[in-house]
Amino acid sequence: MAMFGTQENFHMSNLLYAYENPILKEVHKNSFYMFLVIENAAGTVVIDKQELIVNQPQIIIIPPNCINQITFSNNPTGKVICFSATFFSLRYNENRLDQFSFLVKDTKKSLLLSKEKSVFFSIFLDLMFSEFKDQKKEFSKALRSYLNLFLIETERLYNPVKKNNFSMIDEKTAKFQKLIEEKYKTCKLPSEYAKMLNVSTNHLNKICKKTTGETSGEIIRKHILLEAKRMLHYTNYSVGEIASHLGFEHLSYFITFFKKQSDETPEQFRTNSKSS
pTM of whole model > 0.85? Predict the structure, then answer.
């Protein structure tokens, strides 16, 4: 989070910062969570080639490691909140972030706000922003409490059911997906992750199927394909360099894998992606 010059992996500012910051206007990748709480703005936010139109109050969620670009056409109002998982987990246990359903992979990245909710978040985030700017005694602890409340309110907006249905099965799946993000270059087999999670491969498949509808192998391959597509679209690395970066021993293995998963070669995807 050095791009913000912040302490302890947390940053907060007015949304105008995103409008004026040249880094955010360019295609870039965050290593942290970013929330854009928009009161009034017009423009687009692109997250991994998914374009979100900004024209009304909403919360936009940009998870870590997503390729994104933020473009506004006027002076926007609202707040930007950036934080690392480490900042949050210093007070709350490590798995707590995984219990927020809107932070799970492949969920929608934009939550529209009613007039009442927009006013609520505006008042709440003004208080949070004052805490961040004033930096009084133990302000970091206070910010974590504010952040936890903000995430709870966002969860209520995203998933308004009263009961928290998060279970040990969901927790194990979340840990599995987090491990994939960390180990996908060197570990590509379900059995390798099952060993790290202290479960059998069959059990890992069972819980993945129950929570995501996909097998553990499908989840691994889907993530590798996403990383490959990111590099093909956003970098000028050769297909061979990308294959090596993703941990494929031979270029032919990578091409075969990519074509099987996407029905086109890496070069075909790059050409079609750049022209679309």
Answer: no
